[in-house]
Design brief:
This protein has seven helices and no strands. By secondary structure, it is mainly α. Bound molecules: protoporphyrin IX containing FE.
């Protein structure tokens, strides 16, 4: 069970990174270039939100059910703070990634509610930038932007 969920969570990272880059490209060029908000802009932001929600669900299952890192981390938080990998998954990864998903959600919701095309692009551009910074920082701090946990811990 853990390896299936972990593999999906691991591969879905690449889809999320690709979707973040695509939404960043469309929203910043749409905002700066004063372009109209196209159907493709909407589809890209829905796809990003869907992938982020899937990642959140897979992450929460790992966090509370299948991961040995968070099981050990939550069993003794004091000791976990002294172990970089237990601290990373129990605190840093979970906190930063949940915040990133919240930013993606806020970008989508506020863009949908905006009444002009410029404002739609702007909301997506700003919130998606903030989410991307968090995701890249959280993965980058442990060398997980590319590759697997197994190779990062060797
Ligand atoms: C954009 C959001 C996220 C991305 C890009 C992401 C990415 C990753 C990556 C690349 C790994 C290492 C996979 C491996 O090679 O084994 C991982 C592991 C993990 N993630 Fe996430 N994650 C995200 C969100 C979350 C969230 C929201 C949670 C839970 C609250 C979470 C919980 C975990 C846990 C517990 C592990 C360790 C699994 C293990 O025991 O090996 N992740 N994540």
């Amino acid at each position: 069970m853990h390896s299936i969920i972990n593999t999906l969570h691991s591969y879905n990272r690449y889809l999320i990174l690709a979707a973040l880059v695509y939404v960043l490209y469309r929203s910043w060029s749409g905002w700066m270039g004063k372009k109209s908000f196209e159907k493709a802009d909407n589809t890209a932001s829905v796809a990003l939100l869907g992938l982020a929600h899937l990642q959140l669900l897979l992450g929460l299952i790992q966090y509370f059910v299948t991961s040995a890192y968070t099981r050990d981390g939550m069993a003794d938080m004091g000791a976990a703070m002294k172990n970089e990998w237990l601290r990373y998954f129990t605190v840093e990864h979970a906190f930063m990634m949940i915040l990133a998903v919240v930013f993606i959600q806020v970008g989508r919701t506020t863009s949908k509610k905006a009444t002009t095309d410029e404002a739609k692009h702007k909301k997506l551009a700003i919130w998606t930038t903030a989410a991307t910074v968090l995701v890249v920082a959280a993965l980058g701090m442990k060398g997980l932007l590319i590759g697997t946990l197994a190779s990062a811990t060797q």
